[in-house]
Amino acid sequence: MDSEIKEEIPVHEEFVLCGGVETQVLKCGPWDDLFNDQNVNRPKLLIFIIPGNPGFSSFYVPFAKALYSLTNRCFPVWTISHAGHALAPKDTKILTASEDANAQEIKDIYGLHGQIEHKLAFLRTHVPKEVKLMLIGHSIGSYIALQILKRAPELPVIHTFLLFPTIERMAESPNGRIATPFLCWFRYALYVTGYLLLKPCPEKIKSLIIRMGLQVMNLKTEFLQTNILQPFCLANAAYLGGQEMMQVVKRDDEIIKEHLSK
């Protein structure tokens, strides 16, 4: 029964220009544009999912659908990709906004600081001020969610949920000890290897490999994530990962204490 309900839930895919970079946004529910929908049915709350790294938003579609169902389909659930982690398919229209916050380029947008500013630019441009926000951060998305609370207190965030949060001492964790040398010291070797192996590979072969991998992991997604094997996207994910290891060190207890009620 649950699977049947989830199949009926509409999910709309958009690519928008945010901070000068094309960005994938998956919108669960019938609301595509919160600004133009001025009728009484416009939702008063947006559930906004910030992914981990790599920031492939399509992996969060089943979770978004479940949230949408559990809230009785009253509130939209949007998932945004990280900047540089999703490339629009050929001939896909990139939506633009007239606001300067969206058109202005963000310095080092593929790094950790830039990714935070990237999410802030999107929220300020695509979400009306009167629509309240519920932030859900996964992994490094939890760190980004906390930074949103710190840097933009004017945003109407009423709740923040941190799922498997990586908000402190990432390089000291068991996985961090393994990943840090590769992401920080040998990342250029990873870039070159990725480009040499994946750049010549035909898109059909990449799609087949991804489908087989998802099947082995028993993962289902209605949006085929070919960006998983795009050298450009993988390089940006590795670059972000390296910055995470170096910058996410001490937990910011002041932010948590200040917004504990959320």
From TrEMBL:
Enzyme nomenclature, EC number: 3.1.1.13
Reaction it catalyzes: a cholesterol ester + H2O = cholesterol + a fatty acid + H(+)
InterPro entries: AB_hydrolase_fold (IPR029058), LDAH (IPR019363)
Cellular component GO terms, alphabetical: endoplasmic reticulum; lipid droplet
UniProt xrefs under Pfam families: LIDHydrolase (PF10230)
Sorted UniProt keywords: Endoplasmic reticulum, Hydrolase, Lipid droplet
Top-rank taxon: Eukaryota
GO molecular function: sterol ester esterase activity
One GO-annotated biological process of the protein: cholesterol homeostasis
Top class in the EC scheme: hydrolase
Localization, UniProt: Endoplasmic reticulum; Lipid droplet
Main location: endoplasmic reticulum
Gene3D superfamilies to which the protein is assigned, alphabetical: alpha/beta hydrolase
Family: Belongs to the AB hydrolase superfamily. LDAH family.
Function comment: Probable serine lipid hydrolase associated with lipid droplets. Has low cholesterol esterase activity. Appears to lack triglyceride lipase activity. Involved in cholesterol and triglyceride homeostasis; stimulates cellular triglyceride accumulation and cellular cholesterol release. Acts antagonistically with PNPLA2/ATGL in regulation of cellular lipid stores. May regulate triglyceride accumulation indirectly through stimulation of PNPLA2/ATGL ubiquitination and proteasomal degradation. Promotes microtubule-dependent lipid droplet fusion.
Protein name, entry field: Lipid droplet-associated hydrolase
The organism of origin for this protein: Marmota monax (Woodchuck)
